[in-house]
Task: structure prediction
Amino acid sequence: MSRIYDRVALIGLGLIASSMFWAIKRAGLAGEVTGYARSEATRETARRIGLCDRVCDSAREAVEGADLVVLCVPVGAMGAVAEEIAPVLKPGATVTDVGSVKRDVIQSVHPHIPPGVHFVPAHPLAGTEHSGPESGFAELFDNRWCLLVPVEGTDPDAVARLRALWEGMGSNVDEMEADHHDLVLAVTSHTPHLIAYTMVGVADDLRRVTDSEVIKYSAAGFRDFTRIAASDPTMWRDVFLTNKDATLEILGRFTEELFALQRAIRTGNGELLHDYFTRTRAIRRGIIDAGQDTDAPDFGRAKAKS
Ligand code: NAP
Result:
């Protein structure tokens, strides 16, 4: 794979940024990768483990001269970071982000992008429940989707170059409109996370089941909820605060379905339950056929860095 950018700057050095660094290095996609994180502790860790060719003590220093700047901070922090780096962005450079919500990021970042600088929002649909600079690994994006959400009038060459970077990091790439992205993610990621958080919270409240029983017998289904519910609290707080409408819409639908199933259980409507579970099984089959998971019961755990 050949070099796509001479210099890439990663702002925020957590799971996604560190995985991007290792994936960029794996394929030789950039000449130099600079990095910045707000805390001294994260910058020190990054230097110790060789994350980034150069770790800088300010976001502006990291961004100076970069052809591509990637905002890898929580969604609620994107606007302030964009405002801070705006004066030093190189003409012709591209600014992108990896935020899990797109409409809010566009609204908070786009006004700070100076003329002559491209803005191409993006969202890699890949992650683990781990966070921080030591949680990343080069394979995170392999065969996962990355959605590009270009704003109107964006230079097609800037979009094509970013697409090439994500493909070089192992992703499949699609383009999507921002509101549609937020709705799709509310269905596939945001609402499921909220349900997992709730389920783990419920188990925590159930005093009739002891903590040790919950932990000991968790492989029966609860374990998968706990993995999701261990995700970073700041990131997920921001996701729900910024993708409010779509999440509430899908939660409303979810609640209706839940009530229907609750009634079926109470009235002994086995046919409804059986038909429902047959339909959901087909959706699972579709995900496996699309190569987004395997039938192996412990898929993901062996690969994800613990
Ligand atoms: P992470 O591992 O928690 O790292 C977050 C980074 O952002 C850290 O370097 C942190 O700095 C910095 N940061 C936190 N709050 C900040 C603030 N207020 N101002 C400036 N910097 C701040 O997060 P991540 O999982 O890589 O997520 C980064 C972005 O990717 C988020 O927007 C998230 O929505 C998106 N995303 C996440 C996943 C996932 O599964 N994790 C998947 C796809 C997209 P310090 O270390 O110095 O505190």
